[in-house]
């Protein structure tokens, strides 16, 4: 029986995870990867997120990232590893994290006691994560923890993100949602990436998106206007609740007080980053 308030782990994740994601929207990251010779933004994303697993092939990335068109992945992988090694990409990513967080948060926040406290709490939570059946988490767990607090916090956020993400894929499979159906149904909640961002970044076509909508209408998940039905809302809620159950261990280990404090600290960092323009204004929504 959990000692945590309902959805405390999810709320913590929702505050911690976005600061991890800022790097992939950062011009600093683009600059670092271009310096290695990786100029395509999608190749940069594949390389940066997969590098912890080594010079893997396109099948591994499609499997672990889940919602990308395999044709897009295969267009860039394994060719990207001929341009830069995984080790070089990981080093470039960490340099980009450093400059991005300093730019978004400011040097005072980066060097603050609150950042050091958040790093300690997030790393403690990550000690509750498990490697089995969680390939992206397990690969990142083998990386060294950076010494500087803001980088250690980002590293811990990455561990928590990928641990939850690996479990989320299990929940999506159990719900029988294929990659595009997962994206379409998530966008229909109003919380996912806007369709134009999904289509542009994930390698799908508008016809693919519309075909997934039709499949979901056939299951009673979407109505004629593309909105979630009552059954669709229940399905998405169950996916998130199952993800919560699979991701409970790190937050149970941290305890209710620690989770509440980490959520508070992470939310403060996130609000600062958002005010500094960390993400595109039209990234989420149904449009």
From TrEMBL:
A Pfam family matched in the record: HTH_67
Superkingdom of this protein's organism: Bacteria
Protein's name in the database: SalK
Record organism: Streptomyces noboritoensis
């Amino acid at each position: 029986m959990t000692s945590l308030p309902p959805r405390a782990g999810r709320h913590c994740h929702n505050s911690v995870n976005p600061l991890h994601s800022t790097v992939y929207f950062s011009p600093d990251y683009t600059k670092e990867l271009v310096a290695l010779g990786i100029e395509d933004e999608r190749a940069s994303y594949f390389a940066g997120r997969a590098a912890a697993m080594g010079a893997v092939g396109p099948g591994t990335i499609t499997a672990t990232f889940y919602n990308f068109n395999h044709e897009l992945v295969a267009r860039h992988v394994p060719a990207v590893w001929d341009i830069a090694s995984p080790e070089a990409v990981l080093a470039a990513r960490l340099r980009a994290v450093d400059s991005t967080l300093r730019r978004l948060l400011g040097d005072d926040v980066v060097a603050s006691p609150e950042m050091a406290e958040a790093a300690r709490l997030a790393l403690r939570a990550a000690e509750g994560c498990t490697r089995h059946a969680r390939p992206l988490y397990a690969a990142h767990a083998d990386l060294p923890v950076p010494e500087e607090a803001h980088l250690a916090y980002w590293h811990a956020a990455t561990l928590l993100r990928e641990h939850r993400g690996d479990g989320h894929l299990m929940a999506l499979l159990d719900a029988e949602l294929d990659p595009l159906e997962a994206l379409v149904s998530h966008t229909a909640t109003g919380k996912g990436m806007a369709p134009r961002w999904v289509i542009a970044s994930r390698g799908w076509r508008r016809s693919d998106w519309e075909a997934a909508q039709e499949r979901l209408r056939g299951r009673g998940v979407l109505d004629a206007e593309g909105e979630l039905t009552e059954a669709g809302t229940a399905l998405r809620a169950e996916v998130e609740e199952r993800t919560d159950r699979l991701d409970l261990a790190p937050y149970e280990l941290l305890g209710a007080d620690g989770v509440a404090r980490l959520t508070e600290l992470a939310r403060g960092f996130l609000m600062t980053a958002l005010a500094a323009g960390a993400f595109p204004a039209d990234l989420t929504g149904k449009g």
